[in-house]
Specification:
- By secondary structure, the protein is of the alpha/beta class.
- The protein has one domain: Rossmann fold, CATH 3.40.50.
- It is built from eight helices and seven strands.
- The strands form two sheets. It has a four-stranded parallel β-sheet, with helices on both faces. A three-stranded parallel β-sheet has the order 1-2-3, with helices on both faces.
- The radius of gyration is 18 Å and the shape is globular.
- The protein binds nicotinamide-adenine-dinucleotide.
- The site of nicotinamide-adenine-dinucleotide has 29 residues, from helix 1, helix 4 and helix 6.
Amino acid sequence: MVTGGATGIGRAIALKLADKGASVMIADINEEAAEKTAAEVRDISGNSATFVTDVTNVAACEGLAQATIENLGSADFLVNNAGVAGSAGWQSRSHSTEEDWKQTYQVNVIGMSNVTSVFKPQMTKRRSGRIVNLASIAGREGRPSLAHYSASKAAVISLTQSTALELARFNITVNAICPGLLWTPMWEQVGDRYAHDNPAFKGMNPREVFDSMIAERIPMQKEQTPEDIADTVAFFVSDDAKNITGQALNVDGGFFMR
Ligand SMILES: NC(=O)c1ccc[n+]([C@@H]2O[C@H](COP(=O)([O-])OP(=O)(O)OC[C@H]3O[C@@H](n4cnc5c(N)ncnc54)[C@H](O)[C@@H]3O)[C@@H](O)[C@H]2O)c1
């Protein structure tokens, strides 16, 4: 089960899991894109379903858990990937508004907790399961122009540890991934924001901001891709990672070394 599985990183995760033979439930607010990705999954592994879900809505999350059982049997792996970087128009502002704080916490943190809560009973009953949460390198260190987003992703790392401790005795692992810089619709917005409020990027378009960040901040001098993150999810849900829990792994070409 992948939240936000319709586009970007979530889509790559859905396709990678399908490639490993999994049936995939895609939960997203974007129904059209979710259906498109589900069709791609079906071409690879033969089985997929979608459920229009806003992760901030507890009733919708309960419906999602039920629909997963009805359509695909059970959820062996849960990938909490749905995320936002702010409230509408955040990329054109130079400061975090109260709405930005509320929206990022509502989706990135509370939404993650909502979805985890409704899938926990299936996993604890079977005494097996894997949960992977999408954090960010922005959660490793504060970012002045993205304070609300950075803080929400630091909270994701903490939530991952709490959930890992809670579920360890049920043979369920819970880990987080901190992606570095990926050119997705979300980063296009980030680039727009940096061009607005950071003099170093004044006059640049979002892609130029992105390329300049890669050149200056990534020791390996290359961008990360949705497939890099999907490969890491595949590792965390594999048997090779059966004894790893409560960790947050940077996939960032060396940007952060802690
Ligand atoms: N792109 C990056 O550089 C980057 C870096 C670090 C972390 N991340 C994290 O990776 C995850 C995926 O990011 P992305 O770049 O693919 O973003 P994206 O905007 O391309 O995709 C996010 C997906 O989540 C869905 N979504 C948004 N709000 C939702 C909600 N309330 N309920 C259900 N679905 C919802 C969207 O419809 C979309 O399909 C996010 O958690 C993001 O914070 C991204």
